[in-house]
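Homework help board

Subject: predicted structure for assignment chain

Our instructor gave us this sequence and asked us to write out the predicted structure in token form, then describe one feature. I got the tokens but I'm not sure how to describe them. Can anyone check?
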Amino acid sequence: LLEANPRLVYQLITGYGMDGEDADRPGFDIAAFWARSGIASLLQAPDGPLPFQRGGMGDHPTGSSASAAVCAALFNRERTGKGQLVSTSLLRQGMYTISFDLAITLGWGDHIGIGRREEMGNPAMNNYTASDGRSFWLVGQEISRHWPPLCRAVGHPEWIDDERFATPMGRRTNAAELIGLLDAIFATKTFEEWAVILDGEPELFWAPVNTIDDVLIDAQAHAAGGFIEVPERDGAVMRVASPSDFYGTPWSARSAAPMLGEHTREVLVELGLTDTEIDAMFDRGIVA
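My token output:
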């Protein structure tokens, strides 16, 4: 193809890459992206079953990587006048997704497991559940910055200087005890009550653990452009939007998805067929 059109940019997505013994294996994201790349094993809780992948979880980021590669190739073509083949694979995307863990093992030989939440070395970087069953995630990654506001939020400012918890090593050593205390405290109030308290500490970061139903009514998800109204013949329906916005060239859904066979005749006319030929194809069941 490049011989016929040297400016052609062509994208290829495979399951396992272009080379190697398994290059021709069927490419499914739950196989190549999820299982073989190491993601499923990495996310397995101790003594728990292997987690299942959600639909399209590997396909979507692989498609995004592929489109980014095409954009880079198009930019190179503008500079050099030459097109090229660009490719990615579900396996490579899965490996890149956990490149943090792979790099640690390559560099130091260590394996960082998912761990038990009841024994997390940093209890301020953990999930907790309110009295009404809703959960939230504390994001206390910067230890010295996030520990004092957490102590104040849960009504125990004395923990800041408590010898059990005053240092990162102390909190790690006594993690099970501290997490147990936090579990009991967070179980005394509803999610909405804790939301007000946690938001009252600007240096304490957290996020709700949303269910699918929660996401659908999350005001921030809507404000961020996560949903879009798509026209249908009987009105409009809400759908999930693509994850990027273009402020110079804003976009919107222009039309409804076509019905099966809606444009068959129109396309065949564009291909040069006569009405008689098209009618014959319909009569014989060749097209619909």
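Reply (TA_rk): Your tokens look well-formed. For the description, you could write something like this. Strands lie at 9-14, 84-89, 127-129, 135-138, 206-208, 227-232, 235-240. That's the kind of observation they're looking for.
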